[in-house]
Specification:
With 136 residues, the protein is mainly α. It contains six helices and no strands. Helix 1 packs across helix 5 and helix 5 runs antiparallel to helix 6. It is globular, with a radius of gyration of 17 Å.
């Protein structure tokens, strides 16, 4: 029961995604074909909100709902991020879906997206299996 708040936020977030057409494969294809600014605006807004949120968390030492300190570990760059980003982008462009909206697409009745979800899970498993042999 203590995690019900996450379920509610996820449901609201999914409804917003659906109503804003953020999960629409057509909108995603428009973005990758450089035919529309819509998705770039959505993604850019999300980046700005994230940057502002991290700034405020650090500035005011904001804690989690459970009272724990928020720790943001510094990230180091590796060339594997380039390869992973390219693979992720190609998959996103081909399927018209990134991992976030997959569940909203399936919940909206686009059950064929279940293949994309299974592929994403399989890809995550393959990465975990070969992780030690990949460039990091």
């Amino acid at each position: 029961m203590k995690n019900i708040k996450y379920l509610i936020v996820g449901l609201v977030f999914g409804i917003i995604f659906i109503k804003a057409e953020v999960i629409s494969w057509f909108r995603i294809q428009e973005m990758f074909r450089l035919q529309s600014f819509f998705m770039y605006g959505v993604i850019g807004s999300a980046v700005m909100v994230g940057m502002l949120s991290v700034f405020l968390i650090k500035k005011f030492d904001i804690k989690t709902l459970d009272g724990e300190k928020v720790v943001i570990e510094p990230k180091t760059f590796s060339q594997g991020q380039i390869y992973g980003g390219l693979l992720f982008g190609f998959g996103w462009a081909i399927t018209g879906a990134c991992p976030g909206p997959l569940f909203a697409q399936i919940g909206s009745g686009f059950t064929v997206v279940a293949i994309t979800l299974i592929s994403a899970i399989l890809g995550t498993w393959v990465y975990g299996y070969f992780k030690d042999k990949l460039p990091h």
